Amino acid sequence: MIDQEALVRDVSPAMSLETCETPALVLDLGKVDRNIARLRAHLAKLGVDFRPHVKTSKSLDVARRLFPAGSGPITVSTLAEAEYFASGGFTDITYAVGLGLDKIERARRLVDEGVRLSVLIDTVEQAQALATAARDGGAMPAVLIEIDCDGHRGGLLPDDRTLVVIADILRQGGVPFEGVLTHAGESYNARGGAGLPEAAEGERAAAVAAAELLRAAGHGVAVVSVGSTPTAHFARDLTGVTEVRAGVFTFFDLVMHGIGVCDADDIAVSVLATVIGHRPEKGWILTDSGWMAMSRDRGTQRHPVDQGYGLVCDIDGTPFTDVIVEDASQEHGILKVRPGSQGVLPDLPIGSRVRILPNHACATCAQHETYNVVDGQGREITARWPRMRGW
């Protein structure tokens, strides 16, 4: 049988950013390691454990930059991710998306295989379904209750007595109840860092209040989990919190740059594109990387600085002044000077190569099957790392 993963990892000694086929997803490993070290150091000062989210990279190789021993703890957004990372030796996993009732047995199989899996719920119906499943005496995942800290998505408010009802059902049904989890999704609406310390405190306070309500009702709460990349970096006090989750921080992107969490130079992932045409009368340069390579995510559209479909850099990753992918079709990217800017379109002959920083790293990476790894010191591709897909 052909080992497809081995084929992906096989890199010709001559392969480089100048010779590989485009579009190509490029990963700067020096920036990845720097981003990881930055957040780990910050959280260590605050005295909390770290459970990074691996949904951005979906890659065992990237996860091993976080945990060289490869066991975790990690956070995932799909059960396919949980299965993939478990196959690579990660055994402490939180599945941080509301549990579909049809996924209970699949989650139980992971536990039966030795994975310490936690699942997320926020309804009585989910709790009842778990309690019913537990009647056969088989392995069950631990349960976290989702808390709504800012009205962004799902979860229960910290003072909602349904929290106690759910915990009661789990206890009576013999299902392990572990604690509470929240996510400050509204922090993504910040700009330039303003309001992020306050969002981090709101996130912390909501999770801690929910934990206190449950403890007052006689339930043990071992886990108080918070996290988003913006709040993780701007938190000042995490009293009462046991762990922090964050995901896109490994790569960063233009949304995080616009929010004020990182500099453009911290963005570790880019799409390598080749110039295939010019339309000087329109002020356009055409590349072979359209929205199939970049994704349709326009996450900076409402930011003070709209980055179009991505910010354009030279082949070495240095941004041109105010040059963006202003428009895109399926396989064409249109490079243009940002509207209203005094920038000048660079001289890029046919065959020139550029690197494009993405709006949303998760969405752009999802368009590709492999990372072309560089070390940030040159154009050589030192490895090709596979990434998983699916649900």
UniProtKB/TrEMBL annotation:
GO molecular function per UniProt: D-serine ammonia-lyase activity
GO biological process terms, semicolon-separated: D-serine catabolic process
Domain D-serine dehydratase-like: 268-375
Annotated Gene3D superfamilies: Alanine racemase, D-serine dehydratase-like domain
Cleavable signal peptide: none
InterPro entries found in the cross-reference section: Ala_racemase_N, D-amino_acid_metab_enzyme, D-ser_dehydrat-like_dom, D-ser_dehydrat-like_sf, PLP-binding_barrel
SUPFAM superfamilies from the UniProt entry: PLP-binding barrel
Pfam families xref list: Ala_racemase_N, D-ser_dehydrat
Keyword Lyase: yes
Superkingdom: Bacteria
Keywords for this protein: Lyase
Family membership noted in the UniProt record: Belongs to the DSD1 family.
Protein name, as recorded: D-serine deaminase-like pyridoxal phosphate-dependent protein
Taxonomic path: Bacteria, Pseudomonadati, Pseudomonadota, Alphaproteobacteria, Sphingomonadales
